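sorry to bug you again but im stuck and you know this stuff better than me. what follows is a protein written twice so to speak, once as letters and once as structure tokens for the fold. mainly i need to know what kind of three dimensional shape the backbone takes. anything you notice is useful, everything is just below:
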Amino acid sequence: MIVGVPTETFPGERRVATIPAVVPALTKAGLDVLIEPGAGESAGFLDAAYTDKGARIAAGRARLFADADVILQVRSLGANPVNGRDDLELLRPDQTVIGFSEPLGEPQAARDLAARGATAFSMELIPRITRAQSMDAMSSMATIAGYKAVLLAADTLPRMFPMMMTAAGTITPARVFVVGAGVAGLQAIASARRLGAKVEAYDVRPAVKEQVESLGAAFVDLPLDTDDSED
């Protein structure tokens, strides 16, 4: 079976669906890994890094889609409304596409894939349970989002995050309020704390109060009806 990894075409997308370090595990499982030329360059992986690990470089995008049984993408059709349809005609019946696809937000894309006879596995719909933990792509992306959000906030805020004591006086720490204490929110809290900010957070789930406080932030209680919220 041939697994193909094309270059991502969504504007600004720098990720790649498979990195060189993963290739040996795939080849050991009996899979042949095919990479589109330059697919990993924006993520910092040259073609040579893939071939050194046992992958092959395809002759081009069309050739990759023609040869591969399984297509691995970060953003497949539904999650790539700008350029994703360019790949639709390259898909063939019985081909499998694995990646983020936003089937609930873009149901027409799912129908179009089905019309081509392809099978799609949407990474964002994989259940977040213990057995599927190694396939949980959403949590890792949420962690990065929470971290990056704080960096963007720190860059935008017209003052520094930490308390600064200088000969001219003392600057009090910035105050950061995080709404939501899921994976992204908890990472944002931790990152803001590491930068020296005073952090407060809120979530509709009272059960996460302990997690928020364990990171050094204060949990804000708001007089809202949250009886239907999940723990």
Residues 137-219 form a domain with the Rossmann fold fold (CATH 3.40.50.720).
